[in-house]
Design goal:
Elements (H helix, E strand, L loop, with lengths): L1 H19 L25 E4 L12 E4 L2 E4 L12 E6 L3 E19 L3 E10 L2 E2 L3 E2 L3 E18 L5 E12 L12 E9 L20 E3 L14 E6 L5 E9 L27 H8 L16 E5 L1 H7 L6 E7 L7 E4 L4 E4 L8 E5 L4 E14 L4 E8 L4 E3 L3 E5 L7
Parallel strand pairs: 11-15, 12-14, 14-19
Antiparallel strand pairs: 1-10, 2-3, 4-9, 5-9, 5-10, 6-7, 6-8, 6-9, 11-16, 12-15, 13-14, 13-16, 17-20, 17-23, 18-19, 20-21, 21-22
């Protein structure tokens, strides 16, 4: 009986020891730890080559000959002096996945004053970014489409500027998205372009009383037949305004995006934001009073206006200071004027006074819509009128499309 009791006590003690997990007692086996899956490798850059042999109707002064892209006419003209310029514009490419960076590999030959450059821009919901040097272009938000262009220049007919290949790579890098605020507005001096029959930097032939604008950089140059970069130009009293596409480069400089901060601005980074180099040279003797080509600056102009914009849109009689809004720097819904110049009305009827014009292809910021006079226009017959940011009205009958957001009923 004593032996039996001792055996029972020992067995019970062992069970309690295991249950309590006391030292010296083997713990029950636990399942092996789960193996964490290896992180997926980041996708590599999306790469593609631009077909340089394809010349479209939106290209300017370029030709593909003997396996090279070159200037069709390397001689400077009155409008492009002191350099001849050519632009090949590729078709936009829809990316397989959104990207924030694009880099280019350009195979080119230059000499005796010739230059070549690859530039890109990206599409996001509120429109195209400005054109950027494709050595490494980083966008502040992911883009779903990328368009490239090749720019050739020559100082004289003996200059060499040819390209045999362009390869692009798009990928994703960390960036800080910038919430678009109201579009930037500055007061600058404007001069009249004239030059009817001449050719603009985007290949448009200037017509009598034409409607477009010029800024002294190619970063905001709209391809021919588009208003991707549109300015709103108003008299300083605000009595007249015109929305006009940017179709030319000038005056004075070709690398002065004066509205950008120093971190982005192409040249003249020590100047205050919003101050054109020509104005600083004329008023303050900046750069010895000369432009980027060494010419003495004879007026402070920061933009040019075509004759129709100058005379009919703003009803100007002489070169003058104007208030210019760079519409692509802001956000919100935009309407594209498909048939213009379109009157900006004070109300939703043709009985209201005209307060200016919106040129064909201009992208105008729409705020909301109202019901007004029935209009039979180019695209539809409708009673809908859109109120623009700033208070004027345009008929929906002449608007080809709306993008970048919705415009509710007012």
């Amino acid at each position: 009986m004593a032996y039996s009791r001792r055996r029972t006590v020992v067995a019970l003690t062992a069970l309690l020891t295991v249950a309590a997990g006391l030292p010296g007692t083997p713990a029950p086996a636990s399942p092996p730890p789960a193996t964490a899956p290896a992180p997926a490798a980041a996708p590599g850059p999306e790469r593609w080559s631009v077909d340089l042999a394809v010349a479209g109707g939106d290209d300017v002064n370029v030709a593909w000959r003997s396996g090279r892209l070159r200037l069709a006419d390397p001689r400077p003209t009155a409008r492009t002096r002191p350099a001849a310029v050519g632009i090949l514009l590729s078709a936009p490419r829809a990316l397989d996945r959104p990207a924030t960076r694009v880099r280019a590999q350009l195979t080119a030959r230059t000499g005796d004053g010739g230059t070549t450059a690859a530039q890109v821009r990206g599409w996001r919901a509120r429109g195209w970014t400005e054109w950027r040097d494709a050595t490494e272009a980083v966008f502040d938000a992911p883009v779903s489409r990328v368009q490239a262009r090749v720019v050739l220049t020559s100082s004289d007919a003996a200059s060499e500027a040819t390209v045999t290949g362009l390869t692009l790579a798009a990928d994703r890098v960390a960036t800080t998205a910038v919430q678009p605020a109201a579009a930037l507005t500055y007061r600058v001096y404007a001069t009249r372009i004239g030059l009817v029959g001449g050719v603009t930097a985007n290949g448009h032939t200037v017509r009598t009383r034409d409607h477009f604008a010029a800024l002294p950089t190619r970063r905001s140059l709209s391809p021919r037949g588009t208003g991707d970069y549109t300015v709103k130009v108003c008299t300083t009293s605000g009595s007249r305004c015109e929305y006009a596409p940017v179709w030319d480069v000038g005056p004075w400089n070709t690398r002065d995006d004066w509205w950008n901060p120093a971190s982005v601005r192409e040249n003249w980074k020590d100047l205050p934001r919003g101050l054109p180099e020509a104005q600083a040279a004329y008023q303050n003797g900046y750069n010895g009073g000369r432009d980027q080509f060494g010419r003495i600056v004879r007026n402070p102009a920061g933009m040019d206006l075509a004759d129709g914009t100058f005379w009919d849109g703003l009803r100007l009689t002489d070169n003058v200071w104007v208030d210019v809004t760079l519409l692509w720097t802001g956000g919100g819904a935009r309407a594209v004027v498909g048939s213009g110049p379109l009157n900006l009305r004070a109300g939703a009827s043709t009985s209201y006074a005209s307060r200016g014009l919106a040129a064909t292809y201009a992208h105008v910021p729409v705020q909301c819509y109202v019901t007004g006079q029935r209009i039979a226009g180019t695209y539809r017959t409708t009673t809908r009128w859109y109120r623009l940011v700033g208070g004027n009205y345009v008929s929906y009958a002449y608007l080809s499309s709306i993008y970048g957001g919705t415009a509710p009923r007012c």
